[in-house]
Write a structure and sequence with these properties.
Shape: globular
EC number: 3.6.4.13
Strand order of the largest sheet: 6-7-5-8-9-4-10-17
Number of helices: 22
Structural class: alpha/beta
Family: Belongs to the DEAD box helicase family.
Strand content: 5-15%
Number of strands: 17
Catalytic activity: ATP + H2O = ADP + phosphate + H(+)
Largest sheet: 8 strands, mixed
Low-confidence stretches: 1-39, 44-68, 141-150, 580-620
Enzyme class: hydrolase
Distance between the termini: 60 Å
Bound molecules: adenosine-5'-triphosphate
GO molecular function: ATP binding; hydrolase activity; nucleic acid binding; RNA helicase activity
Helix content: 25-40%
Mean pLDDT: 78
């Protein structure tokens, strides 16, 4: 098919012509549409207007030169600017030999002959691969409005190791975000930490940057001996037991590989060697990477536990930092056993020099209570905004749609927006397949992901969505947490999460896939009376963020719109501390940070002695 030019009409006076190479619109084109029109979409969404159709609203009209041999559905999709569909043959494609597993991605390899006191030499090819891609999310222009911060305001004031300072620059991170500005000094003062901040606010950097920076000067002294990878590596001859200094645990495979990617960037030109361990991908390849030496291990619980149980593969005796990302999810009883095994199992370092950190955007009271049982008594809690609040940059709109009308409404909703990365959430795996098939048959370039897919299919789906080969991804809640993909402008809750299955917490994480790091985005939800269980909580979130309440939700409005949240205060936690006679605080302040303090409930970690530590004042 030949598809050479597309035209976007922004207004009757202004017509932007976007050149597209023969084939489908490139990711760059998608980016151009979204950046220019996000604001208009947002204000349209804020008014809770019914989705505009191209005919009804000239601001959204979009014309593309469509191929003549397309079937009517394809023709329609192409005319609206969506690229061609890509068929995935699960049998054939799944049987292909070669596959770029995320765990084998290139990372900076320190060579024995490098001067240990210096920064490793540049590797321009790797640098290009790690830092120079349109597919890396970049901060939107609203980021500074959203993050008025105290604490460490500039990277130059953060006391970063020169390699880390340079890597932060290469990542194009101009300034620390709010959570980073507080986490940096918190980590340096050597305490355990709970960090709570909105989705897409840079929590990964908030733990990676200070931890890796701290280790960069000490890698030689702290890290285990490892083979010189400048020479031939034969696993059975040169392989070593992996003895990471940092262990990062997260609930999903996709999140593990994503954190691994950010770690590869931030470890560039340093001695620190990251590895990732996650289920579904070949054990042998991951084990061989570990045998080359591993300073930072990122993984999902199952595979980490597997490796812990294998002889001479993984030892946790050197671990200095354990980070639990999406901690409230991993503290949930579904994960309890795995979580305990990791936290207390094997030969885990239980000395005083081992810091524990937990991060999430949502942290209800029960989770906070549980989290404290793993923390030292003088841990620090940094909170940016209310735990579980949704991001103000997401324009949320809710439409009443009966189950029988959802399919058609989904198609109309997608077609009424300019082509951009769109994430559609449904509640079951069979529904994912059904909605994916339906959209595909409507000529739309979509793909899908759920937990019954093989890991290869899951990685392919995420890759196709990330590169915008398939800019529409249909998913279950498995993709609700952590996924950080450039320019996801629209999240559609085809099904709202059920109160007993993720509930409003999952809603917050789902809509947080858009409007990340100072960008804007839209969340559209289909509601009907089967969703009444989540309605009161949903209304509170809409009121809190000053969104319109549609007719179907009016009955759930609290009296005088008074919005209170069970877990929006740390007062009770502080009261517990007082009862226990504790309460040393390290207070942080910042416009968005209502409280951030250190407290404890006098409980020790699983197998650690709880020893009184000296209060260390942060240096800033
Ligand atoms: N200081 C910074 N300046 C600009 N961009 C940043 C900065 N720190 C992180 N980012 C980018 O912001 C994006 C979101 O970060 P991250 O995924 O860590 O968010 P998060 O708070 O963990 O979100 P979630 O709660 O959804 O997991 C990433 O693409 C990351 O590269």
């Amino acid at each position: 098919m030949d598809f050479t030019e597309a035209y976007v009409e922004n207004s009757p006076e202004e017509v932007t012509v976007i050149e597209t190479p023969a084939g489908k619109p490139s990711p760059l084109n998608y980016k151009e549409y979204s950046a220019a029109d996000a604001q208009e979409w947002a204000s349209m969404a804020a008014s809770n207007a019914a989705p505009a159709t191209p005919e009804a609203d000239p601001a959204f009209s979009y014309v593309a030169l469509a191929p003549t041999d397309a079937n009517p559905a394809d023709q329609n999709a192409l005319e609206h600017g969506w690229g061609e569909r890509t068929a995935f043959n699960y049998d054939e494609d799944g049987a292909k030999e070669s596959h770029d597993w995320a765990s084998n991605a290139a990372r900076y390899e320190w060579k024995g002959e490098y001067d240990e006191s210096a920064i490793g030499p540049r590797n321009e090819d790797l640098e290009k691969m790690l830092f120079d891609s349109d597919l890396i999310p970049r901060a939107g222009n609203r980021v500074s409005d959203q993050t008025p911060i105290a604490a460490v305001k500039e990277w130059d004031d953060a006391g970063l190791h020169p390699i880390m300072r340079e890597n932060v620059r290469l990542c194009l991170y101009d300034k620390p975000t709010a959570i980073q500005s507080f986490a940096l000094p918190a980590v340096s003062c050597g305490k355990d930490l709970i960090g709570i901040a909105h989705t897409g606010s840079g929590k990964t950097g908030a733990f990676l940057i200070p931890i890796l920076s701290d280790l960069m000067g000490k890698a030689k002294r702290l890290a285990a001996a490892r083979p010189n990878l400048a020479e031939e590596f034969i696993p059975s001859v040169h392989g070593v037991t992996a003895e990471p200094l940092v262990l990062i645990v997260c609930p999903t495979r996709e999140l593990a590989t994503q954190i691994f990617d950010e770690t590869r960037r931030l470890c560039y030109r340093s001695m620190l060697r990251p590895c990732v361990a996650y289920g579904g991908a070949p054990v042998r390849l991951q084990r061989e990477e570990l045998m080359k030496g591993c300073d930072i291990l990122i993984g999902s619980p199952g595979r980490i536990i597997d490796f812990m149980g294998q002889p001479n593969v993984l030892s946790l005796r050197r671990v200095r930092y354990t980070v639990i990302d999406e901690a409230d999810e991993l503290l949930h009883f579904d994960w309890e056993e795995d979580f305990k095994k990791i936290m207390s199992g094997g030969d885990m370092n239980e000395d005083e020099d081992h810091r524990y950190m937990m991060f999430s955007a949502t942290f209800d009271k029960e989770c906070r209570r549980l989290a404290r049982t793993y923390m030292m008594k003088d841990y620090i809690r940094v909170r940016v905004g209310r735990p579980g609040s949704s991001h103000l940059m997401v324009s949320q709109r809710v439409f009443e749609v009966p189950d029988s009308g959802k399919k058609t409404r989904l198609y109309e909703t997608i077609m009424s927006h300019m082509p951009t990365r769109t994430l559609v959430f449904v509640n079951s795996k069979t529904q994912v397949d059904f909605v994916d098939d339906y959209l595909y048959n409507q000529g739309l370039p979509c793909t899908s992901i759920h937990s019954d897919r093989t890991q290869r299919e899951r990685e392919d789906a995420i890759r196709a969505f990330r590169t915008a080969e398939c800019p529409i991804l249909v998913a279950t809640g498995i993709s609700a947490r952590g996924l950080d993909i450039v320019n996801v402008m629209h999240v559609i809750n085809y099904d709202l999460p059920k109160a007993h299955h993720g509930g409003i917490t999952e809603y917050i994480h789902r809509i947080g896939r858009t409007a990340r790091i100072g960008n804007e985005g839209i969340a559209t939800s289909f509601y009907n009376d089967r969703d009444e269980d989540i309605a009161p909580a949903l209304v509170k979130i809409l009121l809190e963020t000053k969104q319109d309440i549609p007719e179907c939700l009016q009955q759930f409005r609290p009296e005088e719109d008074a919005v209170t949240f069970d877990d929006d205060t740390d007062q009770e936690d502080d009261d517990d501390d007082k009862k226990n006679g504790d309460g040393d605080k390290v207070a942080f302040s910042g416009d968005e940070s209502k409280t951030a303090d250190s407290d404890d409930n006098r409980q020790s970690r699983w197998t650690r002695e709880d020893t009184k530590k000296e209060e260390v004042q942060p240096e800033w």
